[in-house]
Amino acid sequence: MKKLFLLSLTLLLLPILLQGAKAGVVEFVERNPVGTPNAGKVVAELLIDNLQKLGKYTLVERVLLFKVLEEQALGMSGVLSTEEAVKVGKIYGLDYVITGSIMKLGKEITVTARVINASTGEIVKTGEAKVNAIEKLPRAAELLAYRLSGYTEREYKALKEAGEKTQKRGGIGFYGGYVMEENQGGMGMGLLIVYYTGRLSIDFSGQTPPSIGQHIIMGIAFNINPTFSIGLSGAYGWASVDPVGDAQFASVMPTLYYRPTSKLRMKLSLGSIVYGNADENGTSIEMAPFSSLSADFWVVYLISNSVGLLLKITALGGHTVEHGGGHEWATQFSYRAGIIFYPDFLK
Questions:
Q1: Whole-number Å distance between alpha carbons of 183 and 333
Q2: Which of 43, 49, 91, 96 is deepest in the core (most CB within 10 A)?
């Protein structure tokens, strides 16, 4: 019972104990040919990259570590032994040495790794990942990095999802659809540009001719967590409705960005017109602030890493109509769908 308690306590504290520990990754041993040259070196490099992203270890440059192994003739017969790991740890001042192997059985490629305490030679963590194609080795290295850093499968998936949600990227979308105001309507086209960083979500959209009204919308929000961002959007638009005349307006809208999954992104802005001016049959009419609701909603669903489907709905000031002896805004509704691209040069 005591041993079970100590083991459970060790597993719970392991992520904390590993935080910032100095570690070196040794080139993995190829048990048999797996289908690519220098597979052991490739896996080691991929593992280092993923471990660095997680930040649980302070990693020693692999090239320098390899020189020490050559000079000391260590690991020449296969996977680095615990005794050899202790020797490497003393030479380099490491807390942990990470080593492992890769082999292929049938179509399945198995990568195993272990974390060795460089002071005691104790194996404190092990991990294994299996893939069915050599092209999926990066996925195996990523999974191993999480396991060797002390994360559970559930935590790994949650962290991976959070990382994908906040991944730095930009997109350009094109859409078309129907625009209507009062008894008039027509087709309209538009453009959506989005850009995400770990801290900010930014979007710009515009409705272009030949629709009965045009507008531009700019939004910026700060990410409060991987799922939600809160910010502000502003809109400026102009409309022409025959036979009445022209109108201009400006709106301010509090904005919420929502990312329930790494593939689905939404934006909702709700606010009001803060400025409006309309030409009603030759008469200029100033509209009172906050006299009409403004809204902008779009949703993007990624069908691949570089392409997504886009749906966009807006309700903005269009023109004024007489009502009860005065005037009020006739809201212009736009319903559009399109496609958005995420090119590499915007990452």
A1: 12
A2: 43
